[in-house]
Amino acid sequence: MKVILVVGARPNYMKIAPVYFTLKSEQEFEPILIHTGQHYDNNLSEIFFNELGLPKPNIYLGVGSGMHGQQTARIMIEFEKVLFKENPDLVMVAGDVNSTIACALDSAKLHIPVAHLEAGLRSYDRQMPEEINRVLTDSISDILLTPSLDANENLKKEGITDDKIFFVGNAMIDSLRKYESLAEKSDVLDRLCLSKYKYGLITLHRPRNVDNKQNFEKIITTFEQIEKKIPLVFPIHPRSRKTIEKFSLKSRFDNMKNFILIEPVGYLDFLKLEKYAKLVLTDSGGIQEETTVFGVPCLTIRENTERPITISQGTNQLVGTDTQKIIKTTESILDGYCKRGTIPKFWDGKSAIRIVEVFKKCTNIRREKK
Ligand code: UD1
Ligand code: UDP
Fold it and tell me: Three-state DSSP class for 287?
């Protein structure tokens, strides 16, 4: 069974890697790795292949950046050629990025079965491009692999039948568990002169937070207050780096004495930074999940989340962009009042095994090749 696995952007690699390795270990499967090139900088792409031990992609589409329509269309044009060349039995896409919907749509139109990893998550906020990608990908997928039971419920509400929905848990946590001990060996804390549990970690890249000058300035004002209480480290996403330049905000970062602004770091360095942070301030999707597993307090700088289980069960709190709310919550964490969470069901490092079992069982979904 030839299975195409699609990666395109940073959060895809750690989700797809465990599935790739599990498929590779089974004789009946032939996994083919396709990189769309949505992310292409070394520290958003190649470094993850090296650290996760993934081979070079079988095919690299090299689509690069662009407006949503342009990027999605370019991926579709290039990926369709791959489908004709490879003639796969199944295509697996992950998450909610433009590469996800583009490749799923190509496959569905050619009647090639699609498996969606991380299906069913909903923020119910269609201002976010990811929500549109999620809803559309789920609606044309044949195998919906969910990370939590709330996702199953969301899918059922949208009329998706039970026979397509498989609760397999969180594949991203498979990677976290696998690479956790290697990450321990990272010297990133020494390099940045940070001590365990004595710094806050920031990531920020949502268009609503960083592409709007007023919103970004408000968030920077919050950081200016917090860095007086605890050092902050911010591996900055290229989107945010660009808008800092565009809005001439660099001097505000330079003027913060307790603030370390660095380029995005690799997976191992990031896991170490995350595990030993006193708190994490983020608008990332995956980081809400990883902090829940590490038991590290996470303040999500958004009004909503598609990952509510990280709030109901984990260490996540939605704080929006309200400066006073973020500062108050940070102060209570620094005073020792942390939310204690538990790890959600099936976030146990074994999701890829469950996923491959699903592929084996779904013989009825397998493509009948012409
Ligand atoms: C994308 C995903 C988002 C995900 C994020 C993970 C979509 C719609 N968005 O957002 O869901 O959370 O990745 O990091 O798919 N750039 C570089 N180098 C790169 C890649 C991008 O400099 O290697 C810059 C370009 O200026 C580009 C901008 O970053 O225009 C945004 O990149 P893009 O892939 O469009 O969206 P992200 O913000 O990265
Ligand atoms: N990550 C990383 N280096 C960084 C920032 C994040 O390795 O500098 C990892 C992080 O551990 C997680 C994933 O990238 O596994 C999350 O990706 P991102 O926040 O870009 O995307 P999202 O989850 O928001 O779609």
Answer: helix
Beta carbon of 40 within 6 Å of any ligand 1 atom: yes
Q: Give pLDDT tens digits for 274-289.
A: 999 999 999 999 999 9
3-state secondary structure of 13: helix
The model carries a pTM of 0.98
Select 2-170+347-369's CATH number: 3.30.559.30, 3.40.50.2000, 3.40.50.880, 3.40.50.11750: 3.40.50.2000
Beta carbons within 10 angstroms of residue 261's beta carbon = 17
Q: Is 241 in the pocket of ligand 1 (CB under 6 A)?
A: no
For residues 90 and 359, the answer to whether their CB atoms sit within 8 Å is yes
Active site residue 205: yes
Where do you find CATH 3.40.50.2000 in the chain? 2-170+347-369, 185-334
For residues 269 and 198, give the distance between their C-alpha atoms in angstroms, rounded to a whole number: 17
Q: Once rounded to an integer, what is the mean pLDDT over residues 11-39?
A: 98
Q: How confident is the model at residue 367 (pLDDT cuts 50, 70, 90)?
A: low
For residues 330-353, give the mean pLDDT.
96
CA of 39 to the centre of ligand 1 (A): 6
Q: Which one of 39, 47, 98 would you pick to mutate in the ligand 1 pocket, going by the greatest count of ligand atoms within 8 A of its CB?
A: 39
